[in-house]
C-alpha cells in the first residue's frame, strides 16, 4: 500500500469525473501483472503521465514511476508530491543519475514511465526517439510496453491555455504488445517508433471527428498544428534561446 500515491490517484479520478473526460483504454493485457516494464509513452501534453498510468492501475492496481524533468521536483508544491510518489527526476544537462535510478527501479521489478521523444511534440506526430528507453530495457532485462495516448493535447499542451473545466473530451489510450529487450539499442528504438506510429494512426482513425483548423489536430489531418518539420524548427529555436540565456547567466 502507498497511501500518498493512492490518494493522488483518487484525486485524479475525481478531477477527470468533474471534467467529464471519456477514456477508451485498450491493450491492458499487455501490461505485465508483475515484474518490471519500461512504459514508453508519446508526449503531446503536460498531463500525459497522469493518463498513462491508467492501464497499469487497471492491471492489478500497479503503479508507474515516471521520469520527469528536474524542474518539477524543484517546485515547492509539486516537488514533495513527486518524491513521495517515487518518481524519478531528470536533469537534462546530466542524465546519467536518472538513467541509473531508472535501471535500479526496473531491476527491483517496478514499472518505469519514459518519454522517448523527451519533449512535447507540438505537431502531435511522433518526433524522433531517444534511445534511453531501449538502453535501460536491455540493461535491466525489462520489456518495453509501448503506450500511445490521443486526445490529451486538448486538455493542456504547449503553447495553448489549459482546459480543466467540464469539457467531456474523449481520450484514447492504447497499449501495444511488449517488445523484448534484445538486440541493438538503435534497432530496438526504431522498432519502438514503428510500433507506436502504427498505434497512433489506429487511435486517430477510431477517435472520431478531427475538425479542420483546430489547434489540437495535426496538419496531416487538416488541423492548425505545425507540421513535424515546422515543430522541429521551433524546438531548435527555443533550445538555442535557452542556451543563450544560460550562457548569459553563467557569464554575466
TrEMBL record:
One of its GO terms (molecular function) is 1-acylglycerol-3-phosphate O-acyltransferase activity. CDD domains: LPLAT_AGPAT-like (cd07989). SMART domains: PlsC. This is Putative acyltransferase. The keyword Transcription regulation does not apply. GO terms for cellular component: plasma membrane. Residues 230-252 have a biased composition (Basic and acidic residues). The keyword Acyltransferase applies. It comes from Gordonia namibiensis NBRC 108229. PANTHER family: 1-ACYL-SN-GLYCEROL-3-PHOSPHATE ACYLTRANSFERASE (PTHR10434), POSSIBLE ACYLTRANSFERASE (PTHR10434:SF55). Keywords: Acyltransferase, Transferase. It holds the Pfam family Acyltransferase. Residues 226-252 are annotated as: Disordered. One of its GO terms (biological process) is phosphatidic acid biosynthetic process. Residues 37-152 form the Phospholipid/glycerol acyltransferase domain.
Amino acid at each position: 500500500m502507498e497511501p500518498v500515491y493512492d490518494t493522488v490517484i483518487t484525486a485524479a479520478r475525481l478531477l477527470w469525473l468533474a471534467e467529464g473526460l471519456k477514456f477508451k483504454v485498450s491493450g491492458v493485457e499487455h501490461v505485465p501483472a508483475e515484474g518490471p516494464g519500461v512504459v514508453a509513452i508519446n508526449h503531446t501534453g503536460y498531463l500525459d503521465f497522469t493518463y498513462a498510468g491508467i492501464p497499469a492501475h487497471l492491471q492489478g492496481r500497479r503503479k508507474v514511476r515516471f521520469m520527469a524533468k528536474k524542474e518539477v521536483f524543484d517546485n515547492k508544491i509539486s516537488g514533495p508530491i513527486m518524491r513521495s510518489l517515487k518518481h524519478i527526476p531528470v536533469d537534462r544537462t546530466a542524465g546519467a543519475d536518472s538513467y541509473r535510478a531508472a535501471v535500479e527501479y526496473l531491476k527491483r521489478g517496478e514499472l518505469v514511465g519514459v518519454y522517448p521523444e523527451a519533449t512535447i511534440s507540438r505537431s502531435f506526430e511522433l518526433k524522433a526517439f531517444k534511445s534511453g528507453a531501449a538502453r535501460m530495457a536491455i540493461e535491466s532485462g525489462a520489456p518495453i510496453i509501448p503506450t500511445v495516448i490521443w486526445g490529451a493535447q486538448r486538455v493542456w499542451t504547449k503553447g495553448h491555455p489549459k482546459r480543466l473545466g467540464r469539457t467531456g473530451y474523449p481520450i484514447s489510450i492504447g497499449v501495444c504488445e511488449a517488445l523484448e529487450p534484445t538486440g541493438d539499442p538503435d534497432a530496438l528504438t526504431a522498432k519502438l517508433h514503428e510500433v507506436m506510429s502504427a498505434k497512433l494512426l489506429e487511435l486517430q482513425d477510431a477517435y472520431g471527428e478531427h475538425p479542420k483548423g483546430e489547434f489540437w489536430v495535426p496538419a496531416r489531418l487538416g488541423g492548425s498544428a505545425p507540421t513535424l518539420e515546422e515543430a522541429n524548427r521551433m524546438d531548435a529555436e527555443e533550445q538555442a534561446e535557452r542556451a543563450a540565456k544560460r550562457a548569459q547567466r553563467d557569464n554575466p
